[in-house]
Amino acid sequence: MSDFLPFTRPSIDEATIQDVADVLRSGWITSGPKVKAFETALSAYFGGRPVRVVNSATGGQEIALRLIDLQPGDEVITTPMTWVSTTNVILNTGGKLVLVDVDPVTRNIDLDLVEAAITPRTRAIIPIDLAGLPVDRDRLYAIAKKHGLRVIEDAAQAQGATWNGKKIGSFGDLCSISFHANKNMTTTEGGALVMNNEAEAALFEKWRLQGVTRFPDGSMDVDLPGGKFNMTDVAAAIGLGQLRQLDSFNSKRKELAQAYFDLLDPQLGLELPPADFINSNWHMFQPLLPLAKMKISRGEFINRMKEKGIGIGVHYPALHLFTYYRDLGYAEGMYPHAEHIGASTITLPLFPAMEIADVKRVCTALREVLSTSFE
Ligand SMILES: *Cc1c(COP(=O)(O)O)cnc(C)c1O
Fold first, then answer.
1. 175 CA to middle of ligand 1, Å?
2. Could you tell me if 90 and 165 lie in one domain?
């Protein structure tokens, strides 16, 4: 197979490339007017709420934990079915990690287990919209309100996804978005936090850049130990171009996901994700492999697909089984649904520049590889 089909590929149009060239020629390449314009455009996209951008969602989430004034030992509830940045930042800001399992169907945090895990030390919940399928926001915020908890939505994958017709990020508490190259819109690397008010946004700006406040007379002061998380104008120019196309990218993703449902052979025994064509932005299309019936491993399956010119991703192994987390005391059997998903999930190619013919190609290769791998 000559042309390799990766599991994802960014779409950057010529107008955006031109805008980046203009920034590079302008003499101002770090944070400046493009960052401001990008934040304004994002704010409009999220219903007028304050938005600030950073050089990664990980950085934005770390700052979010500063904004809620997390104290050492404060408990933060999340799941092991996410990118490990979600939990790393909790530990790095002194929080106490409280993991609960996911729902086996939605693969998102199980809100019954969240309620059961709440203690007097619980400060916040971090739900993840895995693959762009939103966590039930009604139930989530009912729980948060009842127990006086903050919510930091890890909506890294949910750009343009909706809940009850409202965009994720346009309501609720803090909402973190990623612009990593693989996400539905990118700035190469980058992220944003949607906040509740200008006071939070002002504090965010300090944490973003060394704790500095600049005064109109040219003087400055530092009153907290901020980090170095600012986005460059080069990245922001890409983000502005991507935001213009986000809704059309997402409709294309929806069409391709629908094609997978139509074309995947049900005989293969793949466990498909929920067929949500209302709320999800179809960031990923992730079946679970029927490993119990297969005589090859997931790794071998991925290699055979690669030989057929098709890239397969794994998002994600259950994070509590990584060495660092095992050393903290986590082990197999603690979160069975996350473990099952983490061990058998595959991410099929899905990106806006794909065509239905590519989906057909993936489905054919899947049939060839899987049908010869059963016991
Ligand atoms: C991508 C991703 C992140 C991290 O985003 P970065 O911009 O790479 O820091 C966090 N959480 C989830 C669920 C993600 O998919």
1. 12
2. yes
180, 188, 242, best to mutate for ligand 1 pocket (most atoms within 8 Å of CB):
180
Q: Which domain holds residue 28?
A: 14-241
Residue-wise pLDDT for 108-150, tens only, equals: 999 999 999 999 999 999 999 999 999 999 999 999 999 999 9
Task: Cite the active site residues.
Answer: 183
- pTM tops 0.90, yes or no: yes
Q: Is residue 157 part of a domain?
A: yes
Examine residue 7 and state whether it is found in any structural domain, yes or no.
no
- Please give, one letter per residue, the 3-state secondary structure of the chain: CCCCECCCCCCCCHHHHHHHHHHHHHCCCCCCHHHHHHHHHHHHHCCCCCEEEECCHHHHHHHHHHHCCCCCCCEEEECCCCCCHHHHHHHHCCCEEEECCECCCCCCECHHHHHHHCCCCEEEECCECHHHCCCCHHHHHHHHHHHCCEEEEECCCCCCCEECCEECCCCCCEEEEECCCCCCCCCCCCEEEECCCHHHHHHHHHHHECCEEECCCCCEEECCCCCECCCCHHHHHHHHHHHHHHHHHHHHHHHHHHHHHHHCCHHHCCECCCCCCCCCCCCCECCECCHHHECCCHHHHHHHHHHCCECCECCCCCHHHCHHHHHCCCCCCCCHHHHHHHHHECEECCCCCCCHHHHHHHHHHHHHHHHCCEC
59 CA closest ligand 1 atom index: 9
- In the chain, the number of structural domains is 2
> Predicted confidence band at 2 (pLDDT cuts at 50, 70, 90)?
low
pLDDT digits (tens, 9 = 90+) for 103-117: 999 999 999 999 999
The last residue of one of the domains, among 198, 223, 241, is: 241
* CA of 147 relative to ligand 1 center, distance in Å: 27
Structural domain includes residue 338: yes
Nearest atom, ligand 1, residue 129 CA? 13
Q: Which of 65, 126, 178 to mutate to test the pocket of ligand 1 (most atoms within 8 A of CB)?
A: 178
CA of 364 to the centre of ligand 1 (A): 31
